[in-house]
Amino acid sequence: MMTRVISRKEPIEPISWAWVVQLRENEKRKKVYDVDPYAEVFCFKENVYSIYTESADGMGDPWMHLIIGPEKAMLIDTSFGIGNLKGLVDELTGGMPLIVANTHHHIDHSYGNCQFDRVCCHEYSVPYLEQQWNPHAWGHLYDKNGKGIWLEFDKKDIIPYKEYEIVGCPNNYILDLGGGHEVELIFMPGHAPGGCCYLDKKNRILFTGDTLLSMRVGVFGSRAGMPYNEFCTVTAFRNELAKLAPRSDEFDSLFPGHFILDIDKSVVQNMLDTCNAVIADPDCYDYTEINIFGTESKMKKVKGLGTLSYNNSSI
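Request: output the structure for the sequence above.
Response:
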């Protein structure tokens, strides 16, 4: 039941990828549980588990994060839904009441939602998640013979599909884990219209999904005709970063949804500076490349971690 990557659709940023490889090969704290061998579990902070899964769609391997609170646990993102994620979470928490939340609707962060009864997200993600209510949602991950295209996995290990309750939350909504342990949803669009971060106030960690990473963050606009398109822009991203940067004294590090974890919070200001530079001059990019959608994207980094990948139509 263990997986093997067959191919990837996009080039992997070398430094970030080297960190992941070294972690998986050498980290003595890594655990794999019988209930879900598709997942590798790490505990970098007390009462915070980071769960690594390999990519089933050829792009970046996603992280999920599990916070153990005094009365409730909170799972941030659900990966591809291959393997018994709910069983794994129940084993890690001892069956505690659980809040499940998405950082955004993209499939590598939300296809496991149907293993749960209720999932929270930013309110702008709701219509996108509803579009994914489909028992055949995983069909594009394997060929006509039932073989994984980018990842070897057993189709029987996809937990049967079911619809679930989607709870759309406004910006700055508080998720209460009991005993004064609060996690705040912070709206952070750009990469996705309903993108958000989760600020764990007790542990002083900002869980950022795909909005702040050790590698490039893509802002390419949303599908035509879909709601909230105006929030899939560099400008929308910049506007919320400008609100987040002054709050950097509230967290010590960032735990993204891909690649390097526990990255320095300076990346918030770095990305804000980069967005401001791009908005001021869209042609100030450092280089271009063909992105995963087959179109040319521009790459810009002012300093520090993180690179902005964009095109002129997404500013």
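The mean pLDDT is 93.
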